[in-house]
Design brief:
about 180 residues, mainly alpha, Rossmann fold, globular
Amino acid sequence: MPTEEELAHDFLWRVHKVTPRLGMVGIFNRSHYEDVLVVRVKSLVPEDVWRKRYDHINAFERLLADSGVTIVKFFLHISKEEQAERLRARQETPSKQWKFAPGDLKERARWDDYMAAFEEALTRCNTEYAPWYVIPANRKWYRNLAVSQILLETMERMGLRYPDPIPDIASYVIPD
């Protein structure tokens, strides 16, 4: 839930203020997409409000890209059957029970609504400067491989390199 301070600003404010500075890496879990997914499914704001947010998100991501930020977005898709198995494992396995939340069952009941919301967000916000990658995630080993490969290829295209060392680094004597 957004804080009182966050609610006093536009919906992108809380994300923009924690965007990593240039040269740094940041990972957002859901972030500004909650404002076209959850708010849509739960009818937290009127449709005319969340519908406009697709364009705002695209403009925000364009601003970041134009400022030198590389954006890579992943949608980790699991099937409804796999989700049920994972929820059962949380319920039945003592070392996973801490992750079980009854509220997840209420959200699961809205599966079709979430899938429609995801589909529209993925379609409307898939751009050249901020592409979506839909990753089949039923098998964690495959999910990890696919995400790693995409990140590796992205970083290779970026031409990253280590910063130059300090001048005369070899002249420094490191005592035993």
